[in-house]
Each structure stands twice: as structure tokens, then as C-alpha cells.
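QUALITY CONTROL LOG
STEP: pairwise intake check
CHECKER ROLE: data steward
CRITERIA: each record must contain a sequence immediately followed by its C-alpha cells, with no blank fields

ENTRY 1 OF 2
RESULT FIELD BELOW
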Amino acid sequence: MWCNMEEDRILNEFESKKLLEKYGICVVPTYVANSKKELLEVIERLGYPVVLKVLSSNITHKTEYGGVIVDIRNDLELLNAYAKLSKLSKSVTVQKIVKGFEFSVGISHDETFGKTIMFGVGGILIELLKDFSIRILPIDRDDAEKMINEIKVSKVFQGYRGIKANDECVIELLLKVAELAEKEPIEEMDLNPVFVNEEGYMVADARIVLGKKIKKRTRQIEDINFLFNPETIAVVGASRIEGKPGNTIMRNLINLWFKGKIYPINPNADEVLGLKCYPSILDVNEKVDVAIIAIPSKYVIDVVEQCAKKGVRGLIIISSGFSEGWEKGKEIESEILKISKRAGMRVVGPNTTGIFNSKDKFTSSFALIPELRRGNVGIIAQTGLFVGVLLDQILSAHRFGISKVIGLGNKCDVDECEALNYLINDEETKVIGIYLEGINDGQTFFEILKESNKPIVILKAGKTRAGIKSALSHTASLAVNDEVFNALVKQTKVIRVNDFEEFIDTLKALSFLPIPKGNRVGVIHYTGAGCVTTADAIEERGLVVSKLEEKTLKKLREIFPEWHKVGNPVDLYPAIEEVGSNKAYNTALKVILEDKNIDSLIVALWATKAFETPKIDFELLNKKPVLFCIEGDVGVCHKLSVEIEEKGFPVYSSAVKAAKVLSKIYQKRKIW
């Protein structure tokens, strides 16, 4: 009776509970009375004390209307309560009082990811304390357990003041509610309060909104490999004027020694950078795999039509001035998509830097790329200049390399789902970094993330109103609910970071290092203060400063003066005074990495012009993760960082930052 709704329908409490019972969900037995006579007949069977509630689909929060009266103990109190509630509705519900801790369970529909489930504190406290946890459906037992443990009041499940809530029954409840929400056309559900005690749970109040039955989206992800390794490309808008996008794109392709053929397109030039120029793509005699379009948006439709006629497979539209800017731009973008779909062409962008492939030396970037360093990190970014700045930062300040980059721009066609699917299946890519502002197809994106076997780092912008407004203005991105996005992070292999620097720091560690097998961390620092702050940073982030084995301590004592107490963290300076920095560091590195109680190691170095920094024997560093931190003179720090990262070990500006990155990687270790 509930599965064929043509429009939204709000079920009242009694109807809602009947639907819950259909799925084996325990509810407080509830009786409906429409008059004083019926009410007294119910009480005769039920007895006191009871709770009386108004019964109306139109009243969402009964307590706000004075629609709930509790602890009624006699007929006089009952009739007085009914007289009050009958002013709101002639129908009321009657139920016995139930005792236990109050929780709430909810279902809602997110525009991006579909149905979500919530578990949190009950009563009016959920709105006041905001103590709840969310997951995207479907969920499993592990998700349900984590939801319970994430809320602040979860300690009641271990016991509080002699009373203990039954967590097993709540897990069962969450799984049954999730099943109901998947099978029925649930638009909203609010079970509040749900009383939980040692024996089990009882749903005391319920409100359900039914909508249309929505079929689960099924989407075929297409292969976009051809966009990354074309044999022939045309640059529409190729320019002789230095600094213009069409000139920089040409320079990048030539300077990086792109392996394929390049056809500059410009009706006002005979040649660009030594290559013959063509008035139109239709004047090129050979086939063209990919066209890079870097001309003003008002001229793009004509070029797209020519590309369709030519039989071009893919377009990368660099130009801006489309849906992100003005109404006319939206119309142009829509027409481009129509033409492309008819011709079977795929479109990257518009409003993007497009693609970079370090293996085949292909790029559409209008940001000048000074050098090429191949690596194992693939990047997906929604905004073009982010990619340019990112590559500049990586190439100048860090030593890990890039496999592929795809800038999505306005995502009128190729989106984050296809880009992510491509990088997951790309043999050159070990680690994936994503900068996101909005998501076109949240359900497919979620499924791809869950199936991924590679580490994925996401910098998700647009968390605040100002951020959302800014994203909409420059890439036409629709907002994603940040609480729901955090649920996605918890349910997948994703590491979420909060800024550009943390994004690079985390990608760098994943690019260079093996995944730590445990949370036990060793620390080597040149100051006592550094040992203290690093130890705090490690344990605050869920890692452990592990106790060293006795044989490790014995070997360390050989390089320290007899007065120094050796332990973890290792304050190395007394050993440096005793045996010199080279022996002190290399001995400590060797014995600590051999220690069975250590899963990873953070090493701090002092960079100064006053004396030579220690020469690390990198052959000593085994397969355990080792993160370096270098502090001191800026010039010396940079030089030493480059040397160490070229050996394959990440370097950070502080041991605290290294601990933060290590913690993020460790938290996701079990799912890669």
C-alpha cells in the first residue's frame, strides 16, 4: 500500500509505526483515540501511567506545539490532557511510558548522493547538541557500529552510572531502517525518541514522508583513454603572441617533445612556432583525434560544428565564459553538448586547463610547464589554474612526480566519475589526488570510490556559504552537503584534507612510502622540546609513541653519554656531542628501524650554515615508512629536502606536520 505513491504523503505516527512493524522494527504499542469515550476504553485495557500525543500528519515537532503530555497517572489528568490536545486535533495516540536512553534515527534524501541514514542523541537535544553520525545508503554492520561509536554519548553503550544501553539491538535497528529505506519510497523518516536500555530498544515516536519510487541509477562509465594519448591534435586558437593561451599550449607541446602530430589552427597566421598553421580544422588533410580549443566562447559553437564534421573524437575546451559566467554562456555550453553528443565526441571542460600525460608528453595546459617529471600521482581538478599552480609547486618545491592530470572545469560532459575510473585503471598511477567543488553524479562517484584499490586524497572546497558562492561563480558547481560528504569519506578509501599544502603533503607521503602496518611510531629529534611536541602530535592523532625493545635501548646507550636516559622519542643531541652527527643519526636509524615495536619513524634534522648536516646512509632505511622533518636556515632546508626526496623519502617543515600526515595514512591503511 505504500509503494505506489504518485506524490509525497506524510504518514502520521500510527501509520508510520505500522510500516516500521512490517520490517520487524520494535515500536511502543500505540493506540488511537478519537473521542473521550474511546480514550477511556483504551486506558481500561492499558492502565497507567501513559503518554498522550496529538495525532496529525501536519504537525512535525509535537513538543513545539505542546502536543505531548507525559506521565499521566489518573482519569482526571487524562481528560485534562485530552481537552488540551483536542484543540490541536481530535485524534490522539496513547502509549505506555518506556524508560531508557533517548536516541534518534533518521532517513533523508540528499540531492547528490541519494538516501542517507542518521543516528544521534534523541529528544530536542539532537538539534541543540548536533551530536549525530551520518552514512550514505546502503550500509553494512561495520557502518552501523561506527555510527554508534562516533557520537559523543556513545559511552552509555559501555555503561554509565550503573545503566548500560544495548548496542547490538541498535545495530539491528539501523540495519532494518536502512533496509526499509532501500525498499520503500521513503523521502524522510524521523524516529525520535528511540528508547534504548539493556534489554533492547523501542521506537516511541515516528514520522515518515513517502515520495515517488526512485529507481537506482545505473550508469555505464565510458573509456576516455583516447583523450590522454592522441596521435594527432589540433590547437584551435594557436597564437604567435607570447602569453596568450594558444601560444603557451603550443610551447608546452613542443618543449615537452609531444610524440604525436600538432596542427595549429588560426586563420590569421601562416605558422606558429615553426609549425604550419591552418585556417580551419577542416583544412587539415589527416584525421584529428583531439582538438584543443582556446578561443573566445562566442566563437566556439562554429568550431565544435567543424570538429564534428571532421570526425574529431574529443574536445578540450580551454576557454572560459560559459555556464560559470553568464546566461548566454549557459546557452553556448548547452549547444556545444548537443552537437558533441550527436557526433559522438567527448568534451573536457569548458573552462579548464584540460589534460597532462607525462608518459606520452601530451598536455593542453595554458600554464607553462618548465620541466617534465614522471611519477605515480594522478590528479583530478575541477578548476584549471589550480592544476597550473599545483604543478608549479610540485616541480619547484617537491621531488615526487606526476602520471596524469585532468582538469574538469565546468564538466559539461566528462566528469569526476569518468576521470576517477580512468586513473584507478591507469597502470602509471599509484595515488590519486582530487580537488572538488561539486559532484555531478554522486551515487556513481560513491560506488567507484568504494571499489577503488588505490589511495585517494580529496581536497573538497565549498564548505561554507562564501565558498559555495565562489565555486558557483567560477565553475558553475552546485554545492555538496559537507556532512554527507564526510560520511562518504568514512565509508570509502578517501583521505580528506583541508588545504592546498596538506593536499601536497599527503600525496607526497603516499607517493614515496609503503603503508604503515601499525600505529607504533618512533621519533628521532635533535632537541628535547622537539621530542615533546612531536610525541604530543602523534598521540593526539591516534598514533602511539611505542616503547622500544630492550636490545634497541642497549645499542642506543652505546652512542650516548652515561648520564642520558634513552627512550622513545630519542633526543639525539647528547649522542651527537658524544660521537658526532653522522654516527649518531645512522646508528639510531638502523637500530630503531630494526625494532619490532616500531611501524614507522619520524626523523628531524637541523639545517644550518654553521656546521654540516649529517650524511644519512639511506641504505639503512628498510621497508618501514620514514618521514623526515628539516628545520632551520631556509636555503639549507630546501637544498637538503631536495637531496632527501630524490632518495625517495618525504620531507616536511616540522615533525608535527609529519605526524599529521602519517596519522591520515594510517587511518585508511586497512582498505588499500
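ENTRY 2 OF 2
RESULT FIELD BELOW
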Amino acid sequence: MQKELHITFFSIIFFFIMQLLAIAQPITQFQQFNGRFDYVAIGNTLNLAENGTGAPCNILTSSSATLNLTPQQTLVAAYLYWAGSGSGDFNVLLNGVPKVPTRTFTTTINSLPFFGAFTDVTAQLLLTGNGVYTLSELDLSADIPPYCGGGLNFGGWSIIIVYEEATLTNNQLSVYDGFERVFMSNPLLEIQLQNLNVISTLGAKIGFLAWEGDATIAVNETVSINGTIISNPPLNPANNAFNSTNSFTGSTDLWNMDLDFYNIESEVNVGDTTMDVTLTSGQDGVIINNIVVVLASELPDATIVIDDVVLVCDSRDITVDYTVFNTNSTDFLPANTSISFYADGILVGSSATIADIPINGSESSSVNLTIPIGVPDTFTLTAVVDDVGNGTGTIPESNENNNDFSVDVTLIFNPIAGPVSTIVVCDLNNDGFATFFLLIAETELLGAQTDITVTYYETLADAEAGINPITNPDAYTNINSPTQTIFVRLENNSTDCYVTSSFLIEVRPVDFLPFALEDLEFCFDGPLETGHLIDLTVQEAFIFGGGDPSDYTVTYHLNQFDAASGINAIPNPTSYPNIFNPQVIWVRLVNNIINCVEIGSFTIQIYLNPIVTQPDDMTPYELCDDLIADGFTEFDLITKIPEITVVTPNITLTFYESQTDADNDINPLPFLAYTNISNPQTIYVRVTDTDSGCAVFTNFQLVVLENPIVNLSSSLILCDDDNNGFAPFTLSDADMDITLG
């Protein structure tokens, strides 16, 4: 795919670092298959001819190859690799389907960068099946000019196809990949392939995907397995291993690309777990992209999973449920395969498989373990299959590095019940019974413990069984007098571990009458219903009921629990700002003589006063004097109401001649035709909220204004010049005479 030029700071820095370090990704194991597996590789070059001095400097953007599995061969995995000269084209098409890499590779030769890319195409090949595969839009045309002069221009692609076939022997097929190179300046490349298990040399083979090899350059170009040079003449002579050939098709024109495999039965030995691959080149530059090794294998592969850990409260004994698997194997796992269990690395027990576990089979079992005192309550439990207890195994396996499984375990313990002081309540009617607030015991029972549920019982048997709890522990009446044992059950909400305990409640006789508290109601100006300072101690006249206040201690609290426990008393009860409306206040009364406690409550209710216009903001009510000029006249007081307040159905408004009458709500004045009794005169107003009874007051002035004096005897006289009885008058000429001004 033709690349557009998108240069970013990140890409510049990234490319610079890559070039600075001359990165080459080591060849390491990517995937391993154990069973009746083999593989085939397809692919093609984009070069039109072998590169080199004088060769054409052009390249294709697509090429094709054919897959032809037999009906007995079932595809299980397909891996696409593509590579070339330059920094990379990572957007290609496979049979028209867009592909981007999940991994990329890079290296340099003679300071020039080369790239590789990988993606899994299993799903596409399973859907398409056999046929022609075309990789397209791999466009390196703009990249290769700097490479052509030195014969380093190339591009191509390959797919490794792993298949399963019932007639095959059990094999271990390992796929390794990376991006390592050998060339004149770096003539020796040594690769060690790990995680192999040679149990038979029969049919052993190795395959390579290599880039940039030249058929015409054969200068000490060798491949050695475990120190022995291998060859496959006539395609791959011993001195020219990478020469543009394809062992799968017999092609010799896979320009600057090699898809080759070799028989290595003579180069490996039974018991080998690694393989040394050595490449040399005295001139030709070669990049190794992947290696596939196929070995005969008849081995189990033991793995283990801890399914569950069963814990017992207050015990270091645990039961571990586990399952041993023999997946990705080529032989059964024999009975009596050892299993060891470790707690934070300390061996705490062992077990073994019971029966032979077939290929892809499993076996579940359990083991009882005791965790030593020295191991912390929270630890890592590790199960290791094929381990005799010292980290070593006795069963050869296809993979010796997947035998362990770990989980974090926390031992569980019962809650701890702290000692509880006897709860004492006054016997107010001397009948031996009283109401107890049992919940105050929880502070002493629990201490700092959390996530614990406390329930209360009348018998130990009920507490142990968790049945018939006391349903009203906040208002429990004793059934035995003067003392009674209350049993409790503390249960951890997460683990269900529990413990039982008990404490005493006691009824003490007293000659003190129960206090009866009335609710406190207040009227305040708004707009807020909270934050008003309340004197809570006005209740103490009722609380003491004539008793000697020095015999008692009274405190005020925000909730019943605090009052019963004697904690968090309101520090300044004579000036308490309410925080809710209405708000319940709890009172704790302690008889200092006999040390018994009573609690009670009352409610603070705040009502907001009606909103009225203050006297300074009221306008006088002014009227002119009537026909009798005596300073008295009739006023319709009702007309002032809109100025005084907003009338609603729950608001009443009345007028008075004195503040005393207004305060006492007596002698109200009529709304209409009220005659003032002095001039000026103050009218007092009472505005009442009929729902709450809150009343507020204001006042305003009645003022009678004097009427002006009119002289009706004055006249205007003009001469009738034309004797017609009419003339123009200026009436304002009479103003001075009329007003006596």
C-alpha cells in the first residue's frame, strides 16, 4: 500500500532510537503444538529478479501463492509474516481483506533499516480453505532506491499453516520468530532454541523463513544444527543455504527469500531440550524471521488448577479442591504423579494423581492441609504438579514450565467479643421491669472491628443456633428481675464466622417519677428553618419534676444511641443551633445517687413568621378632612393590607389602637369606615399564621390633611365692547382672590 508522508515528533524520535540501537529482535518461541501436528509454508517474493549490482530497481506490490491441504489435514493455525526494505508498510491486503500487524520487527544492515510484520490469519484461512492467496498493497517502490545499489532491496510474504492429521505420529511442533541477521560485518549468528524435548530423532526437521539471501552469493553461507552443517542439495548446498529457494514447491526463483526445511534426524539426540542453530555468511546479508521445529513426541503435559479453598473458622486447617490436566500433550499422564502444596514457599502438604490421565483429560481431587503458625494469616498457596516436594519432578513432559498454580488465601477467624458493662435502668414504677436500649453494648462488644452483625438473645442455645433473636433491642423489656443475662451473637458478614457472649442488664428501684417532655415550638424570621439558637435547658423544669437538680446529671444528645451510651453530648445546650426542622433531641438523665439512667426525647419545631413590611418602610395613610374641618375622618384600613403583607389562606391580619391590644389580640378595629381618634394616629397591626400561631407586628400612621380655604365672593369684570354680552375671560386672574393669597 503506497505510504503517505505523515511525520510526527513521536515517529521521528522512535525511528531515531531504532537506528541508534540497531535493534534486532532475538528469535524466541512464539507458539508450541503437541499432538498429531505438522506444517506447511506458502508465500512469494515481490522481487522481479535477484537483486544486486545492475539489477532493475523496481518491485511488485502484490504476489500470490497456493494452499493445497489434503482432506485428511485439518488447519489449526495460520500465521502471516511480511517484510522488506525500509521502515515498513503495515497496511496490506490478503485476498482483499485488510491486515495490520499485531507485532512488528526491525533491524539494520549497513545502517539501512529493514522491517517485518506479523498477524494471525487463522480465521480467514479456516473460512477460505484451499486456493490462491494474494498479498497486495505492500508498496515499497518509494523505499528501495537507496537499497538497490548494494543489492539489499527486497519484499515478500509467507504464511505458516499448522495442521492436524490423524495418521501422523505425535509431534511437538514449535514456532519461533524474531528478526536477526547475519552479514559480512556480522558473519556469525548463534541462536539457541529453548523448550524442546527430543524423545525420538525419527522425522525431526527444521524450517526457516529467511529474507535477502542471494543465489549467486555463496561465501561461507552455512547453517549448522548442534555444530553440524546441514544441507539439502541440490536446492540448498552446504555453502549456500539461503539462495532464493522454496523446499515446499521446489522453486529456485523465490528471489531474495527462502522457505526451506531440512531433515535433522542425525543432528539431534534423545533427551535434548535445546537446539543450537548457527548461521555464517562471509558476504550475503540474511535476515531470519521464523524457525519451525518438528520433533516426534510422546509426552504428557501436566498442569494444575486450584478450584476452591475451603476454610474453617478459627482454624489453620484448609481443604484444597484441585484439578490436574493433561492438555497439549501427546501421551497419558501416569497415575501417582506427585503434587506438592506450598504456603508462601513453605511445603505444607502433598498428594498424587489417582489414575492415568489421558491426552486432553483431567482428574479432580482434594487434599487437607494444615498451615503452620509461622505462615501469615494471608499467604500465597501454590500447587505444583510433578513435584516431589523439593521443586523437582519425575515425569518427562512436553513443557516443564507450566506445572504450578497460585491463589491468595486469607484464613478466617471468629470475631472477638469484648466485655460489656452491666446496663442499669431505673425502675420507675417499682414493678421490677424497665425498657433497655441494648444497642449501647455494641461499642464495648466490637471495639474497632467492622463488618460484624450483632444479634441479641434470651438464651445461649438460641444465640448458638442463631434463632429467635430479640426483635426490639432498642426498646427491650426485661423478663427476669432485678438482673437478667442477655446473650449475643457476633457474626462476620463476609465469612459467617461467629462467636457468642453475654452481659447483664439490671433494674434498680428509684423514687423518681419519669420525666415527660413537651415538644418545643418557636417562631423565627426566615428564610432559613435551621441555625436558630435554642435553649434546650428550658425542659429541665419538667425533667426534674420537683426533685433536687444536684442529684442528677442531664445531658442532651442528637440520637438515641448517644444518649443511652452517654457520649457526644451537645456542648452548649443553652444556645444550640438546630440542624434539622423538625429535629428530635434526646435527653440523658443520670441519677447520681443510685447510678441509674433514663433517657427521653422531645422535638424542636421551628415555624417561620409571616413576612410583613416594617414600620420604617410603611407609608402614612393620608386623607383630606371631611366637610367638618376638625381633623377627623373615616379611613378604610383594609386598603393598607397589600402594603403590609401578602395575604394567603393561612394568614389573618387585624388592626388595633395600641400595641397592648395587638399583643393580646383584643379590641380589633373595623376594616372599613374607621374614624381616627387623634391626628396623626398610630395604627398597630397584628399578622398571624393560623397554621402555626406565629404572629408579627408592624404599624403605620393615619394622617388627616386640612382642606384649603376658598373665597367665593371674588368676581372678574370686563367691559362689553360690542354690547353683545360676551367677552374673553382669563379665569386664572382670580386665583389670588379665591385663595386669599
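INTAKE CHECK: passed for both entries
DESCRIPTIVE NOTE, ENTRY 2: Confidence is low (pLDDT under 50) at residues 1-22.
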